[in-house]
Amino acid sequence: MNRDSEKRAERIAVLVPAVLMFTLGLWGLDRGGMWRDEAVTFQVARRSMTQIWHLLGSVDAVHGLYYLLMHLVLAVHADEVVLRLPSVCGAAVAAGLVAALGTRLARPRVGLWAGLLYAITPMVGHYAQEGRSYALVAAGVAGATLLLVRAIRGGSWWPYGVVLALTCVLHEFAVLVLPAHACTLVLARVPGRVRRGWLCAAVGAVAVLLPLVLVSRGQAAQVAWLTTPDGRSVEDLLRQFTGPDRLVVGPYVALMVLGLRAPGPQSEVSLTAVALPLLVVPPALLMGVSQLQPLYDDRYVLYALAGAPLLAAAGAERLARALGRLRDDGAFGRLRAPEALSGMRASGALGRLRAPVARAPRAVPRRAGVLLGVLAVGGVLAVQLPLLQADRSAANRPDDLAADAAVVARRVRSGDPVLFLPSLERRAALAYPADFRGTRDVALRTPAAADGSLYGREVRAGELRRRLGRLASVWVVCEPSALQPSWTPWSRTEGAKLAVLNEEFVLREEYVSRGVTLRLYVRRAQRVPVSTSRPPGAGTETASGVSGSPSINVRTTR
Q1: How many CA atoms lie within 13 A of 529 on its CB side?
Q2: What is the pLDDT of residue 290?
Q3: Which of 338, 337, 330, 339 shows the shortest CA–CA distance to 361?
């Protein structure tokens, strides 16, 4: 293959996975409502720069750069599709960069297979359609890793340091790729000048990140919900990285193991030296630290997934080479045997026969191997297509705030008082304010944007009691868990909400959505008959969590 053909093959190997990932990312992107994390991005990014800066001093500093980026994006047009588009672009870039790594470290067909495997992985597709930073972080880490390889081979270190620093500021847990890159240098046995260049770039990136780390340490309560990872967490992460369909996981892992022994180039960094630390080191470090203070969630190490398709593609390449050798020995061995036995120089007709014999096993397997690899990836895509399709539904997210807000819009009239229990349930009103237009937020003291918080500041317990004391009825937007007797209020104001509802109100109506429950409470002195009508097919259950409530029929909203 001449140089022009090789360059063309490299471009195709990088472009095809990127285009596939972009196409898969656009598929079903307009699934509808935001879930709670996306809603935070949406409502924060639509604030002014001053208000965003005010917020970062008290909460979500780890996402600060992402919010500033999304502020510029949503200024063009603010809706769910535009909110998710940067993640689609980030995932497409990451797929192309994974392919570029495979191409640079092995050959174009290895890069093509690796990029395609990355693009069809359900975990990648999930975060490609999420209005959060994780797909962009994965692209940044893949780009930094490619620049690391280039720097090891004689390139400049400053592009590596800049990309790494920006990626770490985009999400601080991306800094865990630094130990992975250090392991790459050890495995590659690079000379001292390369180690010194990397160390300078790494120190610069850490210096840029350090102020963010100091601020975010004071906001650690935000991740108090995380639990200590265990063996099940490792198994789940492996399935997410390689499947998760069982028909895929086994062969995928087998190819990865085979890829560990794939031969690499001499005297320079190999694919295994790059992919293995990237895959293993960041998750292992975060899980290890989380034994002391839980910080682990699989999305925080999404970028490490890139190591899995690289190793699997290297394993597929080794398998293809082995099959090629077997074919050569079987199909062409008989033609070569007389030459080996005679010990004579080939000439004349024998020489003319020998030339094509030497070329045939090289030309055919190259094209056939690429095609077979692409067909194998297509088979994996076919197996996992139901998972990818299911992920395009809003029902596959923890909640759907658009559906929750629509329940309120259908039932609550302009001027009606609304109480959020707990205050976090105000997120639906912040994400979809039109559905709450005209309602009165009983507990709110300072709106979220002005307060520099995510959900606003509520009045003290005494003031809340006085406000509720003047109401004949109140709508309560509540999280289902807050209705359980085991739920513990985390503030005196939250406790006052439950106490006043228990003491002074009775339940009249209830509408249940997947992520929220809407209840109408009326004052005991004005008790009215409980509504028993319900739409056909609606479920029925007994209200609980607030004492003194009569048994009612629940109107279930789908």
Answers
A1: 3
A2: 96
A3: 330
pLDDT of amino acid 2: 75
For the stretch 481-531, pLDDT in tens is 888 888 888 899 999 999 999 899 999 999 988 878 999 999 986 544 444
Instruction: Yes or no: say if 457 and 493 are a contact pair by the CB < 8 Å rule.
Output: no
Residue 60 has pLDDT above 90, yes or no: yes
CA angle 393–399–403, rounded 5-degree value: 80
Instruction: Name the strand (E) or helix (H) holding 474.
Output: strand 473-478
Find tokens 């935001």 and name the residue. Answer: 34
Q: Parallel, antiparallel, or unpaired: how do β-strands 473-478 and 417-421 relate?
A: parallel
User: Could you give the 3-state DSSP secondary structure of residue 337?
Assistant: helix
Do the beta carbons of residue 286 and residue 300 sit within 8 Å? yes
DSSP 328: I
The token pair at 244 is 């998760």
Tell me the C-alpha to C-alpha distance, in Å, between residue 450 and each of 63, 126, 434.
Answer: 19, 33, 19
Tokens 């970028």 belong to which residue? 303
Mind listing the pLDDT tens digit for each residue in 339-374? 444 444 444 444 444 444 444 444 335 677 788 888
Under 8 Å between Cβ of 519 and 417:
no
Structure tokens given for 52 = 């965003």
- What is the phi/psi pair of residue 505, to 5°? -130, 160
How many whole angstroms separate alpha carbon 345 and alpha carbon 343? 7
pLDDT tens-digit map of 407-463: 999 999 999 999 999 999 999 999 999 999 999 999 999 999 999 999 999 999 999
| Inter-residue contact 510 to 518 (CB < 8 Å) | yes
pLDDT value of position 243: 83
Cβ atoms of 365 and 317 within 8 Å: the answer is no
Most confident of 257-271, 273-287, 349-363, 528-542: 273-287
Helix axes 3-26, 108-120, angle to 10 degrees: 0
Phi, psi dihedrals of residue 484, rounded to the nearest 5°: -85, 145
pTM, two decimals, is 0.87
Q: What are φ and ψ of residue 188, in 5° steps?
A: -80, -10
Cβ(164)–Cβ(144) under 8 Å? yes
3-class DSSP state for residue 511? strand
CA angle 511/443/469 to nearest 5° reads 85
pLDDT at 46 over 50: yes
DSSP code of residue 49: H
Burial of 324-358, coded b for 16+ CB within 10 Å and e otherwise, reads beeebeeeeeeeeeeeeeeeeeeeeeeeeeeeeee
| CA distance between the termini of the chain | 60
Report the C-alpha gap between 190 and 223 in whole angstroms: 39
Helices (H), 391-422: 401-411
